[in-house]
């Protein structure tokens, strides 16, 4: 049989083979596999569903460790519920469960692909919610010390689409996390586009199942819900983060903007389009292209290489920098760089 490739295990569908593959179906197995690789000095790539990575065409010169630990525990009291989820649980299954139970706090994070262990690393966020708002603790293996630790939110270094885990790639392996949700089945709709879809004012409240349905509707329209038959979903999600700037007045008024903790967040999608790269844009002869549904996603039109994807990313960054003086940051993890 031909070797399994990273293209077969990632949503962008690029990447060559690895030397070995291991699947960890419990937290203990995950810790043991990581420690074994570290003692041996073997390169290790810890992989969930591969929804936020770009893997090299030459593959990975070591072992790919697939995280498949499962389990959800819940403890409800005083109008709140704490759920503890194992790293290998599919994230959207957890959001679906919460919405069905009437638990609010993560409903706007519906439709995001990947496993739960990846969510604190990226501090996933969408439509006015982010994971940092509900995390109670994160249980991790600190590879630098070989110790299992439980980190409070203050120790996680959560920022916009980032965390202490992302800041030190390779050091931390997420084993499980606890989320504190409300048992009030009505969530606050903070994002204008979502509010309009639900039919409430921005900042209004709606049933969590209605919010989830609206988010899935919006994400499907943008090619952000995985679909085998739709090449616009053959991506790593948003390829660039929205830039936060201190001087928003120098940008055209037409550029969408939102308040951020350290300045004003601009729409990266708008900046890309106004730099001459509309939806569907591709470099000549390339099998990678900007999504036909959403400018922030770089997609594989079938048979694209990692090199083609990264060449397109370079062109996007170059044009936005030349047009607006803004450096767009890449959101997915570039393996092997």
Describe this structure in words.
This protein is α+β, with helices and mostly antiparallel strands and 337 residues long. It folds into 3 domains: 6-67, Uridine Diphospho-n-acetylenolpyruvylglucosamine Reductase, domain 2; 72-219, 2-Layer Sandwich (Uridine Diphospho-n-acetylenolpyruvylglucosamine Reductase, domain 3); 231-334, Uridine Diphospho-n-acetylenolpyruvylglucosamine Reductase, domain 1. Helices cover 24% and strands 27% of the residues. The protein has 8 helices and 20 strands. The strands form 7 sheets. The chain has a 5-stranded antiparallel β-sheet. The radius of gyration is 20 Å and the shape is globular.
What is the CA-based Rg, rounded? 20 Å
- Strand fraction: 25-35%
Q: Total helix count?
A: 8
CATH architecture of the largest domain: 2-Layer Sandwich
CATH topology description of the largest domain: Uridine Diphospho-n-acetylenolpyruvylglucosamine Reductase, domain 3
The structural class is alpha+beta
Low-confidence stretches: none
Shape: globular
Listing every helix as H and every strand as E from the N terminus to the C terminus, the arrangement reads EHEEEEEHHEEEEHEEHEHEEEEHEEHE
Helical percent range?
10-25%
Measured between the Cα atoms of the first and last residue, the distance is 29 Å
The total number of structural domains is 3
Summed over residues and divided by their number, the pLDDT gives a mean of 96
Q: Give me the count of strands.
A: 20
Give the strand order of the largest sheet, numbering strands 1, 2, ... along the chain. 5-6-11-9-10
CATH hierarchy, class of the largest domain: Alpha Beta
Largest sheet: 5 strands, antiparallel
């Amino acid at each position: 049989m031909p070797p399994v490739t990273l293209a077969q295990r990632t949503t962008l569908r690029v990447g060559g083979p690895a030397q070995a593959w291991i699947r960890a179906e419990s937290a203990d197995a995950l810790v043991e596999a990581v420690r074994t690789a570290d003692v041996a000095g073997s390169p290790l790539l810890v992989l969930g569903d591969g929804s936020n990575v770009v893997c090299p065409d030459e593959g990975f010169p070591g072992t790919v460790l697939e995280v498949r630990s499962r389990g959800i525990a819940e403890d409800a009291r005083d109008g709140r519920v704490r759920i503890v989820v194992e790293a290998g649980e599919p994230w959207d299954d957890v959001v679906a469960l919460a919405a069905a139970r009437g638990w609010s706090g993560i409903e706007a994070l519906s439709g995001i692909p990947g496993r739960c262990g990846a969510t604190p690393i990226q501090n996933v966020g969408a439509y006015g919610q982010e994971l940092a708002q509900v995390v109670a603790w994160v249980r991790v293996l600190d590879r630098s010390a070989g110790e299992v630790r439980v980190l409070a939110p203050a120790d996680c270094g959560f920022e916009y689409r980032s965390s202490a885990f992302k800041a030190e790639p390779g050091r931390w392996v997420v084993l499980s996390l606890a989320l504190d949700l409300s048992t009030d089945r009505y969530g606050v709709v903070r994002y204008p586009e979502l509010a309009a879809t639900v039919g409430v004012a921005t900042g209004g409240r709606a049933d969590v199942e209605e919010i989830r349905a609206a988010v899935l509707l919006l994400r499907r329209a943008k090619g952000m819900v995985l679909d085998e038959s739709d090449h616009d979903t053959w991506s790593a999600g948003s390829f660039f983060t929205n830039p936060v700037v201190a001087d928003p007045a120098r940008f055209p008024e037409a550029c969408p903007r939102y308040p951020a903790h350290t300045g004003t967040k601009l729409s990266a999608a708008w900046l890309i389009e106004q730099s001459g790269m509309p939806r569907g844009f591709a470099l000549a002869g390339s099998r990678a292209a900007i999504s036909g549904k959403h400018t922030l996603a770089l997609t594989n039109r079938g048979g694209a290489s990692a090199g083609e994807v990264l060449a397109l990313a370079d062109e996007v960054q170059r044009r936005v920098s030349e047009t607006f003086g803004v450096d767009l940051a890449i959101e997915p993890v570039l393996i092997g760089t």
